[in-house]
Each structure stands twice: as structure tokens, then as C-alpha cells.
Amino acid sequence: MTDLLNDRRERWLVHLLQLGLLTISAYGLFRGQIGVVVNGLVALGVTFVPALLRRDLGIRMDPGYVLWISIAVFAHAAGILGPYRNVPWYDSVTHALSASIVAGVGYAVVRTVDENSERTTLTPELQFAFILVFVMAFGVLWEIIEFGTEQVAKLLGGRAVLVQYGLDDVINDLVFNQVGAIVVAGWDAARPNEAAEEAAEAVDD
């Protein structure tokens, strides 16, 4: 993927997605839909994280992985405009995409711990299990946040920024979170290996 997406192309595509997220936020502001605005701006902020890590900590990510992050958050932000409600499979795909990013963070954490702790030896099997548990825990926390914001919105008489569509939706989200986690945990090419190595070195320093 790196051969297909050199630095210049990666920056161009990421900037294009960032422009799309800014457009989504502007549309939400124009329509008075605060949920759309918040989701768009949060997603836009996430796309700047790789650049901040590179600038402040010297942690670089593969261009393809940076683009993968941008696609995942763009898909989430765009979904609130209608696809989440109108396209049956869209929510499942976006959760798998988002979970793969969370799994990448979990992988970086477990690699950092494994390489910097003399008391800890994490076998590939334990690393695999850690990534699954990490994603599951994050997914449960996210569902709690969704439920909480919805209840607060009801109390205040407003519209929720994050919405749940019932217990079946929650279970479906958690299942597809694990699909994304399994892809990262089991497929070396889906992991942010360069970033994980540099994060481990940064902690060691």
C-alpha cells in the first residue's frame, strides 16, 4: 500500500477527506443539526492526530494507515447524514473500520509494554487476546457514552449527539467491533508496526 500511496498522494487524499468533514460540519450548522456538527468536527480532529504524533513525539505512521484512519472517521461522520438509517450494512462496516483503528492503538500499547518491561513477556497469543479485550472494553465504553448522551438529551429536551437504536443495534455494534479487532490482531499488514516501534522507543527514552 505504501508504494501506491506515497507521501504526496497520502496528504492530498487526507486533505480531501478533511475538506469533506468540514463540509459535513458546515452542512450540520446550516441545518441546525448539532449532532452532525459535533460528529464532523470530532472526526476532523482525529485526522490531525497522526500529524501531531509525528511533530510532537516523532512517531510516524505508514501513509496507508493514516489514510485508513481518515476513511474510518469520514465514514462515521457521513453516516449520520442518512446511511446509518437507510443502508442496513453501513453501521456494521463503520464499526468494523473504527474498531480496527482502536485495535491499532491497542497493538501499539501491548508492543510498548512488551518491549519496555523486563518483567513482562507477552506471547503472540496473549497479544492477540489483549487486542480483542482492548477493543471490547472500548466498545462497551462507547455504548455507555451513547446511552448517556441520549438520556441527557431527553432530560434537556434536545436531540442526542450520539444515538442508539435498541439492544439489537448494541449487540451488532459489539460483534462488528470484534471483526475489526480480529483483522488487526491476526493480520500483520493491518497493524501500525512502524508507529508501534517508535512509540516503544519513545517510552524507553
Attribute tags:
mainly alpha; 205 residues; 9 helices
Plain-language structure description:
The protein is an all-alpha fold. The protein has nine helices and no strands. It has helices at residues 7-31, 34-47, 49-57, 63-79, 83-86, 90-116, 124-156, 167-186, 193-204. Helix 6 (90-116) crosses helix 8 and helix 6 packs parallel to helix 9. The chain is globular and about 55 Å long.
Brief synopsis:
The chain is an all-alpha fold. It is built from 9 helices and no strands. Helices cover 79% and strands 0% of the residues.
Note the topology:
Elements: H1 7-31, H2 34-47, H3 49-57, H4 63-79, H5 83-86, H6 90-116, H7 124-156, H8 167-186, H9 193-204
Structural class: mainly alpha
> What is the first-to-last residue Cα distance?
30 Å
Q: Tell me, rounded to a whole number, the average pLDDT.
A: 83
Approximate shape: globular
Low-confidence runs (pLDDT<50, min 5 residues)?
Answer: none
Query: The biggest beta sheet, please?
Result: none
Gyration radius, rounded:
18 Å
- Run of helices and strands: HHHHHHHHH
Q: What's the multimeric state?
A: single chain
Helical content band: over 70%
